[in-house]
Structure formats: C-alpha cells, structure tokens
Amino acid sequence: MGVLNRPGDINSYGYNDDSFPTESSEVQLETEESIRRAFFSYTPESPRPTPLASIELRKMRHVKYVLGGIDFLASYWTSLDASKPWLCYWILHSLDLLGYKIPEKLAERAISTISHMQCETGGFAGGPGQEAHLAPTYAAVNVLAIIGTKEAYDVINRTTLLEFLLRVKQKDGSFTMTVGGETDVRGSYCAMSAATITNIMTPELTSGAAEFVGRCQTYEGGLGGYPGVEAHGGYAFCGLAALELLGRTDVLDVDTFVKWSASRQMSLEGGFQGRTNKLVDGCYSFWMGGVFPIIGKMLESFDADNSVLDFVYDRDALQEYMLVACQSKTGGLRDKPS
Amino acid sequence: MSDQDDIPFYEKPEWADIVPIPQDDGPNPLVPIAYTKEYSTTMDYFRAICRTQEQSERALDLTKIVIELSPSHYTVWHYRQTLLKALNKDLSSELDWIQYMIDENPKSYQIWHHRQVIVDHISAALLPADVPTSSTFSTLTTASGGIPYNALSEQQKEAAREAVKVELAFIAAALEEDSKNYHAWSYRQWVLSHFGPGPWWAEELEYIDKLLETDIRNNSAWNQRFYAFTQGPLGLSQENVEKEIKYTKTKIERTPSNESPWVYLGGVLRKANHPMSEIKEFCESLLPMPRANFSPYLHSTLLEIYEEEAKARRTIESVTKAKEAAVMLAEKVDPIRAKYWNWRKGQLNNISVEA
Known about the structure:
Oligomer: heterodimer
InterPro entries (chain B): Prenyl_trans_a
GO molecular function, one term (chain B): CAAX-protein geranylgeranyltransferase activity
EC number (chain B): 2.5.1.58, 2.5.1.59
Number of strands of chain A: 0
Strand content of chain B: under 5%
Protein name (chain B): Protein farnesyltransferase/geranylgeranyltransferase type-1 subunit alpha
Distance between the termini of chain A: 26 Å
Keywords (chain B): Magnesium, Prenyltransferase, Repeat, Transferase
Number of helices of chain A: 15
Structural class of chain B: mainly alpha
CATH class of the domain at 1-89 in chain B: Mainly Alpha
Mean pLDDT of chain A: 94
Largest sheet of chain A: none
Number of strands of chain B: 0
CATH topology of the domain at 1-89 in chain B: Serine Threonine Protein Phosphatase 5, Tetratricopeptide repeat
Order of helices and strands of chain B: HHHHHHHHHHHHHHH
Number of helices of chain B: 15
Strand content of chain A: under 5%
Shape of chain A: globular
C-alpha cells in the first residue's frame, strides 16, 4: 500500500508523543521531519508532484560505488582490518543482487583473497594470520557460494571447518564467535549457514542449538542476542534464519514473534526500526525485511487453508523508504537521510 | 596510554631479535587497505610474537599498542587475555584502562567482552576452593554457573557487593552516554546473574525507575525490568504481578501511544498466566479519551482481549467483536500494518463457533 499514496495528509502520519516529550520521542519526531522532506516532492501536497513511477533503484550508480571498494580502501578502513571477508562479501553480494555479472578475473581474485584467510585449524579469519571467527567464516563461505564454481567451493577445508565449529560450540547449545570470544545468537546463524552450505550439519553440531535460540525470545516476541537481552532486529534475523536452517522454528512462540516483527515497521517512514521506540534505519530493511519470507513459510505450514499470499508487512512502504530516502546521489545506500 | 616516545617500539633495541612477518594476502588481493607504515610494521611484529605465543611483558605492551591502533582486532584481545593470566598481572589497573577504552569505543564487542573476561576472572577468588579453573578466562566461572552468593562468608559477600557496585556504576556511566547501548545492557545482565541472588536485584528496580523517569520510552529499561523479575530472586509472585500491573498502568496513562509499557504489561500477564481480560476495564476506560483513543497499542490490546474472549465463549457475537477490532486497526488506527491486522482477522475464522 505504501505511505506516499495513502489517503490523508502526510503530516497526519507519524509518532504521537502524547504531549509528553522525552529523548526517544524528540529524536523520532526529528527523524520523521527529515523523512517528510525527502518524501515531499512525491506527495500530492507538493506544487508539482514527482510521479511515483519515476522512483527507481539506481543500479548503475550503486554498482559503481561497490566496484570502487575492490582495489583501494583508504587508511581509515583499518578499523575493519579484522573484517576483510565481510568487505569481500558486501561487494560481491551487492554486485550479484544488482545483476552485475562477476567477471572471471574478479572471481579468481576473490577466491585467492579468501583462501589466504582460511585458518590451518579450520574456519576463516578477519584477515591473513588472524584467528578463526564465525563472522568472517560466514562471510568467506558465502563469498565462495556466490562465485559458486567448483574451484571456489574447493577452497574450503570442510574437515577442519567442522572442527572449528565444534570448538566454539558450547554445552548450552550456543556458539562463541571465536575461541575465548563472546556468545550471542549471531554465532548460531553463522555456524548453521556455513555448515549448511558445506553440508557438515552433524548431530553433534546441531544438538541444543535450536533450544538456545528459543531461549533468546523475549516477552516482546522478538529475539535478543542472548537469553534475557532486548529483542533486536539483527538478532531476530540471525535466530530465525538459524532455526529455519535447523528445521526447528517450532521452538518459537510464533504469534508473538510475528506481532513483534510486524510492529517494527515505522508508520510514516515505511522502513523498519530494530527495537521498540528506536529509530528507523535502512539496515533493518534487511534484518527485519528478511524475517518475513521465513515467517510466511512458517504461517503457511500451520494453515493450509489460509495461506499467506504476500508477506505480513507493507512492502510498498519499505520500498518507498529505501528508494526515496536511502539512495545516495553518488551511489550506495544509507541508514537514513543525514 | 600508548608509548609516549618519538621512536616507534620496533626501532628500539629490545625488539631487535624479532624477525617481522609481513601480511600474506596473496597476489593482487581484493579490498587492500592503505595501512599507515606505523600500522603495517606494528602488525608485522605482532604476527611474529603471536606466532610463537610469546608470554612476556613486551608482548603484553605490544598488545596494547595494537589494540589502540585497531580496537576491533579480536585476535589481539584474545592474546592479551592469555598474557594477563600467564603473567599474573594486576587486573584492577586493567579495569581502569578498559574504562578509558570503553569511553572511546562504546559499541565494541571486544572491549565489553574483555571487561567480562577480566571481572569473571577476578570473581573466581570468591568461588569455593574446590571448583576447577580452566585455562581460558572466559569459561572459568560460566562452567560452574556463577557465584553462589548465599553460600559465601560475610567477608566474601562484602567483596561480591563491592565488585557488583563497581561494575554497575561502570555500566551506568556508559548508559548515561547512550541509555540504550545494547552491549552495556547485555553486560549488565551478565553482572547481575553472575554474582548470584544478592541485594542488587531489588536495587536494580530503583535504577530502572530512574531511567524511566528520565525517558518513559526507554525500551531497554522496560526489558531490564522484565529481566529483573524473571531471571533473579525477585520472581513474579501474585503480589509482584499486581504491583507491576499498577505501575505499568500509570505509565500507560501518561503516554498511551508509547508501545513499551503496553508490551511489558502483556508480557507480565502472559508470564504470570493471568488472562488479558484482567485489564479489559482499564483499556475500555481509555477508549473515550481523545488523548488515548487513537493509540494503536490500546486497540491491539483490546483485540487480544476480545480474541481471548471469543476463544472462550465461541459465539458469533464475540468473534464479530474481535474482528471489528482488527478492522479498526487495519483501516483507521494502524494502517501501516493492514496486512498483519487482516491476517489476524483471518485467524479469527479458526474459532469454531457454537450454532
């Protein structure tokens, strides 16, 4: 349905602060103002409205932006020196989604770069010579899967990868991100994703994993990073996706999960927030948006007669937010208008 | 905090024995970062030391230098943790340094985890002597299930209370800067649980009250409230449930369009196995008020109440009433969620109605 062609004045939508302002409502109202400005030229209130049909994803600009990161990153990127597989993943996954065919030379370089970040004792690290960590392991395995050739898959030492995953597996079903590192539900997802793609899902690896994720569900219905912690879009996606890969979405209270997820969409902005009473952010288009196809499958399996033909959120509104408010003129996407 | 001399450490004689190891990205790698010379040389030396897992003061100093250049470099944090333990270092000065690092990097997974590892290790002194210790810090007390506060001596309890006081103050300072810092709240929950059923649980409610006075919409504080009642010794007794219902109703009355207290209220009722109908009168009393009657949360709570009634009564009338609430949400009060509310309306068809 969307926000831009909804009946009524766009000024009537948005947060109601009950005439009792606090910091949360103040920043929310400020954000809404900046989104209204971004939307204004497309609304009927505008003196010469820009047609909605002209809204488009500026693919070539985004391709150029992404390609720009391949051969040179300025020194301030040192802050991501332990996330190099992520940099490769963000670039290649974006190109893939934008329909840009990955040239063979680029694929070869990606395979070589990633292979230099594999650890002798299994898994992948944030950079050559670093210790294995589940996040770069996820990114590395998925980069190779995007390339998808035998040569790419052959890079992965599946034996030592399983050894690494078992090394970070905890008795309570959770995974630490690295040996001696922190535990949270990202670990569950990264491990399940890598294990599924490489076909090393063993009972030892998966035992207790679903139950741990289930314990991360809060009274709000969403998932936090660890049992007890606040429900959060990023962790909700990781947890739900891990459960889907495990075939164990049954551990969740579905009704409260769906309600919480649907409630994260912002009534004016159209995009998603990550937590109750926080701000919209383009990244949650993925974390929260990505939850709905999985929910759709869950709901269909309960209710054959009442099958969900479309996902239970406003897709048009999300598109409007991303395309109108989050595309940078020079290419790339952002959290929100600055 | 880092070396104040003009000469980089790697040009000093005490490092002359090290053969630096350059980074091996392979030929023509993707995403090459234009490191400063200082950084790449520092890392060449770090790789050499780390390769042998050298346990020495100079290795410890080097980890600090690397961390300050690259705070999210998780490998160096792990190495630092093993060095602190092997060299039996004074951990209270480490805590001071972590304070400084948190101020600079309040959202770093590594720094918050490091604090937890250090405090976990310090707290081991409070464990009974026969509990086995492990070689990696982080599994030290987690394996044993935390500190058995009630079994401690008076002196040990005092030490535990002091440690908790310091940590909670550390976290409160971070929350002053950003009242919703996810890492801070996660760590706060770990501290409360790890040290066992001490007096800090009841005190936590006072802390949450203060935060909610400052910002009634702070959902992290509301979540913490639920945590305080359900994970520690406080519990959701009948008395506590009634107190919480009363508390939350006053917050709702002040800000009826604030999602947090509504969801908290539903959560408490559900956890304590109370029917939603317990708040039906309260909700219906808000309906005629202009300042409340467009709250999507008022209407969605009414939908839950009417749905619960419909499932119990199974009359056409009660199902219709619930459906009307769903339609009100989809069409007037909360149209962004029209698809969801229409799905809820469809679900009501599953209630088999008595003829």
